[in-house]
Write a structure and sequence with these properties.
The complex is a heterodimer. By secondary structure, chain A is an alpha+beta fold. Chain A contains 15 helices and 8 strands. Chain A folds into 3 domains: 87 residues, no CATH class; 111 residues, Butyryl-CoA Dehydrogenase, subunit A, domain 2, CATH 2.40.110; 129 residues, Butyryl-CoA Dehydrogenase, subunit A, domain 3. Helices cover 45% and strands 13% of the residues of chain A. Chain A has a 4-stranded mixed β-sheet with strand order 1-4-5-8. Chain A has a 4-stranded antiparallel β-sheet with strand order 2-3-7-6, with no helix packed on it. In chain A, β6 and β7 form a beta hairpin. The relative contact order of chain A is 0.09. Chain B is of the alpha+beta class. Chain B has 3 domains: 109 residues, Acyl-CoA dehydrogenase/oxidase, N-terminal domain (Butyryl-Coa Dehydrogenase, subunit A, domain 1); 99 residues, Butyryl-CoA Dehydrogenase, subunit A, domain 2; 149 residues, Butyryl-CoA Dehydrogenase, subunit A, domain 3 (Up-down Bundle), CATH 1.20.140. Helix content of chain B is 51%, strand content 16%. In chain B, strands 1, 2, 3, 4, 5, 6 and 7 form a 7-stranded mixed β-sheet that branches. In chain B, α5 runs antiparallel to α7, α9 runs antiparallel to α10 and α9 packs antiparallel against α11. Classes of the chains: A alpha+beta, B alpha+beta. Chains A and B meet through α9, α10, α11 and α15 of A and α7, β9, α8, α9 and α11 of B.
């Protein structure tokens, strides 16, 4: 495990991480990064066995999960120190991939907050070492923004095990995940928030079937998951019976505090789009140019807001800053996708048969994704209006009704 | 470091807020605006002689209090909250111009009276186009004996009918040059205007062979005015944040208390979500304005910060003013309601500091230097 003082500055953390990488990264990888030889780096990233070994090394050093306690494979670092680590890892392409986001960012903190010592022992280290991949089994066809309306049932058997039946949807990486975070209804006679429990599920359990969902981009990275007579052991329960909503809040809060790099103001997506416009000849259009620059301004102002939140964390925007940033950043993604198709109009509309989707077409088709995923923009606006401005809460006439008596979605 | 205010700076913010709330609240701004008065004399002397607000940003060797743009921007944010108008902004910008011109004799002559609030000043730098074009002023300086005489028309001169000292940018043989002209000099004709922004009196100035003294180097005026333009962008952005903060707070309060269909209107998502968007743009503007204020005056970072803030905050404030009226319904459209004072200020401020699209174009050489193409990003003269 890498040695770092808890009081180390961000620059000291970054330097120590870099030193460690120079000592531990496979020499040919290190050389390729330093020489900016992208082909060799790409070859390393594509080598599954090599990457498995690398993630184990990274995890044993504590660098994959630097904010976790040392006893579970972390380094006890602060969020700011961890961001410095993430920055350096990203620069060397030595970071964990997006596929591991749920385990690292959602499962870890949730298990740390609510798990038994046995659960922490069992689940955390394999995440830190990249041995187990996780997915989230929350949303359902009848429970999207209104997540607490979920109806997947978990019934306790006489032997203490749980039998689960239901259907989940929009489950990113479920088709390649080893384990899942599952919310299910255990007490339908209680009001909807009070009858939910939270489980840690082995995705290979019999009765659990994953079906890929093809998105409008043509990708199929998320899935539907069907649970039919799935039997879970008693110790799959995380937290209290019927106490799942509180556990879920921990998970949902983490979604906005994921490990990103150090907050900073610098070139972003808009700069790339401007350069692509110059290459495609569309930069000459003064109206398009102004729209690209307006996006650039908004993107920089969002970066400034992220820096402000990191400096004045918790004070400035009173619990709504995650929602503010999510709302603005989804808006920017939509703007970027829209603009991409105008910046490169020729490639966005037609491309050689069988060739992969060009960036402009992909970005255009994917632009609405983040306005919906992880809490729609409407939900974010409601949160901002209620928490920041103190406006009345949206009424939910069924909030205190027993779940079993509610109207159906 | 950005967004790290010292305890002294935070004290300055709260003492300025208290001062303005008692001596120059929004209700007083309205009275002055309706009476066509440029300032409340007692409030002005409290702000200047007692609180020393004009000494902020002025180096100590020139009788100032030192401090930086950060302090100034905190004061302007508070001023924006109550829509304080009158001589504050033009005098601060004129002080900025005098300092940037670096003319010792002029500094000695003018600065003490301005910093003390005994005299006021303004800038006539927009020429007859009303736009910042420091490299091509419209007023002309002709040589006359040892000095110069100025002739031309200057539009949108803030406080131009009452300020004691006019700083005029004019075309001289050696290039654009800044001149000092007493307002009561012979040949100056002041035409008081009726104005959109009722809190900021403006005048059109006619200069007919007015004797004037150059400030600093001949031909150095464009650089000075560019520097002042950036200061204006940064300080006006702070002012816009303060004004938006008032709008969001008041509109949210109205949405919590005004009832319709058996509930507060703030319970309806159509109202809630519009208010949420206002709050988001306020928080974003706050970040942009503060970021700009933390950059060193005259640096490329400041030029970047000023352009970003001017582009973002100007449009956000205008939108917030429109949304405020919409969310107040009929009462928001009345003369009695304060909303129109904000709407007027929002429009005027976004024009006085230059259109947002120009600030965006100015970003190209700063952040995308490889994409600068002749004729694409240069400001038309």
């Amino acid at each position: 495990m890498i040695e770092l003082s808890p009081t180390a500055t961000e620059d000291e953390v970054a330097a120590a991480t870099e030193r460690w990488l120079h000592e531990n990264l496979p020499p040919s990888w290190l050389k390729a990064v330093l020489d900016d030889d992208r082909t060799v780096v790409a070859a390393h990233l594509a080598d599954a066995d090599g990457m498995r070994r690398w993630f184990a090394t990274l995890g044993d050093a504590g660098l994959a999960t630097p904010t976790w306690p040392r006893e579970y494979g972390g380094l006890d670092l602060s969020a700011e120190q961890a961001a410095a680590v993430a920055d350096v890892l990203m620069r060397y392409r030595a970071n964990r991939p997006m596929d591991d986001f749920i385990g690292l960012t959602l499962t870890g903190p949730t298990v740390l907050a609510h798990g038994t010592p046995e659960q922490k022992e069992r689940y955390l280290r394999p995440i830190a070492r990249g041995e187990e991949r996780w997915c989230q089994l929350f949303s359902e066809p009848g429970a999207g923004s209104d997540l607490a309306a979920l109806s997947t049932r978990a019934v306790r058997q006489e032997d203490g095990t749980w039998r689960v039946d239901g259907q989940k949807v929009w489950n990113s990486f479920a088709h390649i995940a080893d384990r899942g975070l599952l919310m299910a209804r255990t007490s339908p006679e209680k009001p909807k928030h009070h009858g939910i429990s939270y489980f840690l599920v082995d995705m290979r359990t019999p009765g659990l079937e994953v079906r890929p969902l093809k998105q409008m981009t043509g990708d199929a990275e998320f899935n539907e998951v069907f649970l039919t007579d799935v039997v879970l052991p008693a110790d799959a329960l995380l937290g209290e019976v019927d106490g799942g909503w509180a556990v879920a809040i921990t998970t949902l809060m983490q979604e906005r505090n994921g490990l990103s790099g150090r907050p900073a103001v610098g070139p972003g997506v808009a700069d790339d789009l401007a350069r692509r416009a110059a290459a495609a000849g569309t930069w000459a259009d003064p109206v398009l140019r102004d729209r690209l620059l307006a996006m650039l301004v908004e993107e920089r102002v969002l970066q400034m807001t992220t820096v402000r939140a990191s400096v004045a964390s918790g004070r400035a925007m009173a619990g709504a800053e995650g929602s503010i940033r999510k709302l603005v950043s989804s808006g920017l993604e939509e703007t970027a996708g829209s603009l991409a198709a105008e910046v490169e109009p020729v490639t966005a509309l037609g491309w050689p048969q069988g060739a992969p989707l060009p960036a402009a077409a992909y970005e255009f088709l994917a632009m609405k994704q983040t306005s919906i995923a992880g809490g729609t923009s409407e939900i974010q606006r409601t949160i901002i209006a209620e928490r920041l401005l103190g406006l009345p809460k949206d009424p939910d006439p069924e909030k205190d009704l027993p779940f079993s008596q509610r109207s159906r979605a | 470091m950005e967004f790290t205010w010292t305890p002294e700076q935070l004290d300055l913010r709260s003492s300025t807020r208290r001062l303005l709330e008692t001596r120059a609240p929004l209700a007083r701004t309205r009275e002055l605006a309706e009476a066509g008065q440029r300032r409340d004399e007692a409030a002005w002397s409290a702000m200047t002689q007692q609180a020393g607000l004009l000494a902020l940003g002025v180096p100590e060797e020139h009788g100032g209090a030192g401090g930086s743009r950060v302090e100034q921007s905190l004061v302007f944010e508070e001023a924006g909250r109550v829509l304080l108008g009158g001589p504050l902004l033009p005098t601060v910008l004129a002080i900025e111009a005098l300092l940037a011109a670096g003319d010792d004799a002029a500094l000695e002559e003018h600065l003490p009276g301005l910093v003390e609030g005994e005299r006021t000043a303004t800038l006539a730098v927009l020429g007859s186009t009303g736009r910042w074009r420091p490299s091509s002023p419209t007023t002309v300086a002709a040589r006359s004996g040892d000095g110069a005489v100025l002739s031309g028309t200057e539009e949108l001169v803030l406080d131009g009918a009452d300020a004691d000292l006019l700083l005029v940018l004019a075309r001289a043989e050696g290039g654009p040059t800044l001149y000092a002209v007493p307002r009561d000099a012979e040949g100056v004709t002041v035409e008081r205007l009726d104005v959109l922004d009722l809190t900021r009196p403006m005048a059109r100035l006619h200069l007919a062979a007015v004797p004037a003294r150059p400030l600093g180097l001949t031909g150095g005026g464009a650089g000075v005015v560019e520097r002042v333009h950036r200061a204006a962008a940064v300080l006006v952005a702070a002012e816009q944040v303060g004004a938006m903060d008032t709008l969001v707070a008041r509109t949210a309060e109205y949405a919590r208390t005004r009832r319709a269909f058996g509930r507060p209107i703030g319970a309806f998502q159509a109202v809630k979500h519009r208010l949420a968007d206002m709050a988001v743009q306020l928080e974003m503007s706050r970040s942009a304005a503060a970021w700009a204020a933390f950059q060193d005056p005259g640096s490329a970072d400041e030029a970047f910060g000023a352009a970003v803030a001017a582009s973002y905050c100007g449009e956000a404030f205008l939108q917030a003013a429109k949304d405020t009226i919409q969310l107040h319904g009929g009462v928001g459209f009345t003369w009695e309601h304060d909303a129109h004072l904000f709407l007027r200020r929002a429009r005027a401020a976004a024009t006085l500091t230059g259109p947002p699209s120009e600030h965006r174009a100015a970003l190209v050489p700063l952040v995308l230097p490889d994409l600068v193409a002749p004729g694409h990003t240069e400001v038309p003269s």
